[in-house]
Amino acid sequence: MSICITCGTSYDTPPHPSCCAICEEERQYVPADGQKWTNVEELNAKHANKWTQHETQLLSLQTVPAFAINQRAFLLRTPEGNLLWDCIALLDNATQTLIEALGGLSGIAISHPHYYTRMQDWAAAFNVPIWLHASDREWIQRDSPFIQLWQGESLRLNAEVDLIRMGGHFAGGTVLHWHKGDGVLLAGDIIQVTPGADRVSFMWSYPNLLPLPATVVGSMAEKAQQLNFDRLYGAFAGQDIKAQAGKIVSESAQKYIDCLTRE
């Protein structure tokens, strides 16, 4: 197996592929010094996963030292089973042992193709489905019997959790709505939390700084307004909005639209 060092996407092809299809696409990038690869053994030898507890039932795990895009995955514990939100490339023995000790997984859901990484191996290790929006099927680089493509605007995973298609960054861009209590949104970078953790933004390409049209952002804001959530957790460490997240998303979207449409 080959793993792209820039984005973490995995490929079955030996030797290393000539290019990474994810990085070659305009929303990602190939480094100036060229495409580079690693494998599972090298990744396990040089990295580990760090765990953080955010709420009683919500933990995140992130690879250290930083690898590829450096996103974090989340483990959401619900009465109907634990869900992995988004994915990272490193699945080592310690991570598998800890997750099994917490009750294993009932499924995996991923916001968009930049975080597919080694989802196939995670699903096989825990014998669970991977829910991906069908609009992004072209970006799946390795087949797996565990992949379940869903269509439409929402998918209920259990009594507490829905997947919502937001679009934007990718056609199938998805957020996870945990509607227990005041509500939580796990947003990946479909909705990007800004450094002050008091605003959000929306982009077609983050590394290449390419914006989304005002109409698309407006549509995303409308979908968010239909959800009840007080807290929002983004793709990267520190991207945690602890209160009034729904209001912040709405106001930030309007500011974005104003900036794009003013003369």
Description:
By secondary structure, the protein is an alpha+beta fold. It has six helices and 20 strands. It has helices spanning 21-24, 40-46, 93-101, 119-126, 214-225, 245-261, and strands at residues 2-4, 10-11, 37-38, 48-55, 58-64, 73-78, 81-85, 107-109, 130-133, 147-150, 154-158, 161-165, 174-178, 184-188, 192-193, 200-201, 203-205, 210-211, 231-234, 240-241. The chain has a seven-stranded mixed sheet. Strands 11-12-13-14-19-20 form a six-stranded mixed sheet, with no helix packed on it. The longest helix is centred in the last third of the chain and has 17 residues, at 245-261. The protein is globular. The N and C termini lie far apart (51 Å).
Short description:
By secondary structure, this protein is α+β, with helices and mostly antiparallel strands. It has helices at residues 21-24, 40-46, 93-101, 119-126, 214-225, 245-261, and strands at residues 2-4, 10-11, 37-38, 48-55, 58-64, 73-78, 81-85, 107-109, 130-133, 147-150, 154-158, 161-165, 174-178, 184-188, 192-193, 200-201, 203-205, 210-211, 231-234, 240-241.
